[in-house]
Sequence to fold (327 residues):
Amino acid sequence: MKTALPPFVQRFPWWGGDLQTLASALIDAPSSLAPATSERLSIKLADGDTMLAMLDRPPPPHANKPLVLLIHGVPGSEASPYLRRMSGYLLAQGYPVLRLNMRGAGPSRATCGGQYSAASSRDLAELIALLPQDLTAAGLAAVGYSVGGAILLKYLGEAGAAAPLKAAASVSAPIDLLGTCRSLLRLRNWLYHRHVFEAVRSEALAPGAVLTDDERRAIAGARTLYEFDDVFTAPRNGFKGAEDYYFHASALNFMPAIAVPTLVLAALDDPWVPGGAYAGLPWGANRSRSLTPVLTEHGGHVGFHGTGGYRPWSDLAVMSFLEERTR
Fold:
């Protein structure tokens, strides 16, 4: 990507993929987005579930700045620190922001019987189509983090040239779901696996979820993320099992058809997402040449805490890309 930004250089003490990853949880996000104003937005889907989002507006409003949709990872919600940090940065540049809670995530758990997964691109497509026209009058852009990035890339590939976005960006997206699951199940990643698995299991069983007795027993009996996906995520979404789900829902299958200018940012030392999925991707297969890959040697998973300031380098890279593509 042509940018005035210097290359990413990790900063002390966040050296290496693990510390970069942990830093994102340890470094607090701004407690307030003031002087911006925030309000709850509710979007009712065709099946009756209601996805909730937080709409942040900059003061004063900028008529020529597109709305930027931010999509969290797993676990995550509108309150995820990386979403709040990015929202604050976008608001300072005059962009209105919509921090989305995917189906069953965060406050959307109480209003959605269903549960999001990496296959939830149809939910994203429906939500985008239902956004109030006054919010998207200046256009729409989207940024997805981790699984949110994978959902976004899948949606963009499915929609092709019909996607109503000016630009998009993914950060640390698990584009190869089987490879990512295998990575999380490695012994050295047991702490990450426990964190993700316990979070998704708790979320799936939280009040508001509509489950059969068999599904509740299956979720309670799962002991790994693979088992959870095999007995719950896959059948709930029409797949035969975990590997069928991983194969057919992986974003890398859909990326050749993306037609919206899209930044794809990932670190090769990401302990969750194998860098080989990105390094070995045939980027030239994208028919419209719409993908801009930025692969850094370091950065971890949704980390990118570099020299030169507090703000993650990924925020700066995404902002630079959006500024160039949404003028």
Summary: Residues 17-176+252-325 form a domain with the Rossmann fold fold (CATH 3.40.50.1820). The mean pLDDT is 95. Residues 190-205 form the longest helix (16 residues). The chain has one domain: 17-176+252-325.
